[in-house]
Amino acid sequence: MDARRKTGGAVFGAIVGGSSLEERQRCAQEVARRNVSGYWIGGFGLGESMNERPALLNAVIETLPEEKPRLICGLGLPEEILQCVAAGVDLFESTYIYHLTLGGFALTFPLDSMEINASNLASSDVGSDLRKINLRATVFRKDTTPIVEGCVCYTCQNHTRAYINHLLNVHEMLAQILLEIHNTHHFLGFFRSIREAIKAGRFEEFRKKFVQNVFLQVNHTMEVFPEMTMGSSKNNMKTWQGTCP
Amino acid sequence: MALRFEILGRFNRARAAQLTLPHFVCQTPLFMPVGTQGTIKGLTTNQLEEIGCQIILGNTYHLELRPTSELIDEFGGLHKFMNWPRAMLTDSGGFQMVSLLHLADITEKGVTFQSPVDGKPMLLTPEESIEIQNRIGADIIMALDDVVRTTITGPRIEEAMYRTLRWIDRCIAAHKRPHEQNLFGIVQGGLDPVLRDICVRGLVDRNLPGYAIGGLAGGEDKDSFWRVVAQCTAALPEDKPRYVMGVGYPLDIVVCSALGADMYDCVYPTRTARFGTALVPEGVLKLKHRAMADDTRPIDPTCACMVCKNYTRAYIHSLVTKDAMGSQLLSYHNLYYMMQLSRNLHSSIVQGRFPEFVCNFLQKMFPKGDVPEWVCNAMEVAGIDISSCCSLVPSAQD
C-alpha cells in the first residue's frame, strides 16, 4: 500500500484461502478492512469442481462491500463465467482464449441465448460441440463458410473455414492470428450479452438457457448446477450450504 | 497475352512502367513478397494492401501439396481461396523440387522426385506444371525450366539451357488460359554469355508476354551476377516486363533497376524478419542485439509504416527474443520498406531524378563512401554517375 503511493494507480487486495470456507471468509474479512480499490480473488480454476465453487465464491463475496469491483483469475469457460457473474464477480482474467487459439479452436456458441431454440441449434459435428469447432478437422477442408455466419470480426468478414484449415495444416502463423481475432471478438461479445441481460433484468433466464442448450444436457445441468434448479438468485445462494450429490 | 506494359519514364536503361494485369494495375519497378503457402508469413491480406503490395507470389510446389490445386480450383482460384484482390504470380514448382527434395532428378520428361507424402516416385512435367498453375489461377505463371545453379560449371549448363527452350514449347502448348494468365519464359544459361544469348533469342522468338532472368541469386559472385543481368536486359525486348527471379537485397534491386529490370521476388525481407533483422536505409538493424533492449527510437525514424509509428526498438526487441510472433511486426516493416523502395524507384524515374535517388540510397548505405566495386562497375554500364558517393578510386582496388 505504501508502495502504491509512490507509483500511483489502483491496488487490488488479494483473497485466497484454498478450498476452506472458513479461511476464505477470514481472508475476505481482513482484506475488506483495508483501503483497497478492489478485490482480486485467486485460487480458483485449479482443480475444484463446478459444484464446489459456489459455496467458496459466496463465502468470499458476501463478505465484500458492494461498491468495489471483484476480479477473478483463472476461470474462463463460458459456464464458469456465468456462474461467477451470478455470484457477483465483475472482472475476469483468463487464458481461455489463448489456449483455444493455440489448439486451433474457434468459438461458435450463440451469443444471445434468448434466440436459441430447437430449430436453430447447429447439428453437432463429430468431435465438436455447440461451444466451439476445431478447425484442424478434415470436415472443414472445403467449408466455404466463415467461422460464425454473421460475425463481424475481420476473420469472419474476410476468410473461410477452409482457408484457416489450410493454414493450420501448413503451420502458418496467420492461422493463429485469424483465430485470435475471432475468438477475442466472440468472447467479448459474450460479455456484452451478459451485461445486456443483467441490465434488462433477465440474467437468470439467460444463464439457464445457455447452460441447458449450449453447454450441457438438461440432466447434467441439475447435477452440476444444483443452485440453478432450486430457483437461483443471488439471495437464494447465500442459504445454500450442503455438498453436492 | 493478358497484360499491358506501358513505359512512363526512363533514365538510360532504367524504366518506370505501368503493368496492367487481370487483377491489378501495377507500377514497376516492383518487389513481390513471397507467400509460399497462400499467406505471407504472419500478415493479413488487409495489411498487405495497407503497405502497398501489388503482386504476391505463391509457390506451386507447396500449394499442390497442400491444399492441392484441385481444391484451390474448386474455390475459384487462389485469389478467392486466400481473399487477395490484387495480382498474383506462381512459379513453376521446379526450383523448389530441386532445392527441397533430396532425390529430385531432371530428365527430358520433367522433374522426377520422391513424393514427400508417401515416398512414391513422381514426375512433374512442363505440361503438369502449367495445368497446376492454370488451376491456381495467378495473373502470371512461370514456365517449367531446367534450372541449374550458377555455381556449377560444365556441360550441364548448356544441356539445361537447351532443355529450357524445348520445355517452353511444351508449356505454351499446355497453357489453357492464355487470355487470363500470362506465361513468362525464363532465361537460363548460367554465367556463360553465349548460352544466355541463345536462350534469350529462343524465348523472344516465342513472343511471350514477359521474360524472367533465372538461375541467379544462388551464390554466384556479384560481379558475374550483374553482368548476366546487364546482358539479358540489353537483349530482351523493350516493351515487355523483365523479372529477375530471387532478387533480393535492396542494393541488388537498385542496381538491377538501373540496368533495366522491372520485377523482383525474394524471401529475404520476411525471412530476415523472422530472425529479428529489420531493413533500414543504412542496411540492417539487428533487433535481438542487447543494445536494442532500451532503445526507445522506432526502427527507422524516417519510415512512415505502422510499426515505426507505434513501436520502439526496445519493445520489438522484447518480442523477437521470445517468440516467432514477435517477428510479425518486423515482417510488416520490412515489406513496407521494400514497397517504399519500389515506389521510390518508380517515381524517381518518372520524375527524372533517378540518379539523385541512387546516389542518396548509396550514401545512406555506405556513409564512408565504400560502395562495392561491383556496384560501381554496374552503375557505369547503366550510365549513372555515382562519383559523389564513392570515395574509393577504382585503381586502388585489387
UniProtKB/TrEMBL annotation, chain A:
> SUPFAM superfamilies recorded for this chain?
tRNA-guanine transglycosylase
List the Pfam families hit by this protein, alphabetically. TGT
Q: Taxonomy-wise, where does this protein's organism fall, top ranks first?
A: Eukaryota, Viridiplantae, Streptophyta, Embryophyta, Tracheophyta
Domain of life assignment: Eukaryota
One BP term from GO: tRNA modification
Q: Which organism is it from?
A: Herrania umbratica
Task: Identify the residues that the record assigns to the tRNA-guanine(15) transglycosylase-like domain, covering every copy.
Answer: 6-213
Could you tell me what this protein is called? Queuine tRNA-ribosyltransferase accessory subunit 2-like
TrEMBL record, chain B:
> For this protein, what is the EC number?
2.4.2.64
Residues involved in substrate binding: 91-95, 145, 188, 215
What compartments host this protein? Answer: Cytoplasm
GO terms for cellular component = cytosol
Task: Write one Gene Ontology MF term.
Answer: tRNA-guanosine(34) queuine transglycosylase activity
Which ranges does the record mark as transmembrane? none
Q: Where is this region: RNA binding?
A: 246-252, 270-274
Q: Please indicate if the UniProt record lists GTP-binding as a keyword.
A: no
Question: Reaction(s) catalyzed by this protein?
Answer: guanosine(34) in tRNA + queuine = queuosine(34) in tRNA + guanine
| Chief localisation class | cytoplasm
Show where the tRNA-guanine(15) transglycosylase-like domain sits.
13-365
Which metal ions or organic cofactors does this protein require, according to UniProt? Zn(2+)
BP-aspect Gene Ontology terms: tRNA modification
What Gene3D superfamilies does UniProt report for this protein, alphabetically?
A: Queuine tRNA-ribosyltransferase-like (3.20.20.105)
Question: Active-site residues?
Answer: 91, 265
Q: Does the keyword Metal-binding apply?
A: yes
Q: How does it assemble?
A: Heterodimer of a catalytic subunit and an accessory subunit.
- UniProt function note: Catalytic subunit of the queuine tRNA-ribosyltransferase (TGT) that catalyzes the base-exchange of a guanine (G) residue with queuine (Q) at position 34 (anticodon wobble position) in tRNAs with GU(N) anticodons (tRNA-Asp, -Asn, -His and -Tyr), resulting in the hypermodified nucleoside queuosine (7-(((4,5-cis-dihydroxy-2-cyclopenten-1-yl)amino)methyl)-7-deazaguanosine). Catalysis occurs through a double-displacement mechanism. The nucleophile active site attacks the C1' of nucleotide 34 to detach the guanine base from the RNA, forming a covalent enzyme-RNA intermediate.
Family stated for the protein in its record = Belongs to the queuine tRNA-ribosyltransferase family.
Q: Write down the HAMAP family for this protein, in alphabetical order.
A: Q_tRNA_Tgt
Q: What is this protein called?
A: Queuine tRNA-ribosyltransferase catalytic subunit 1
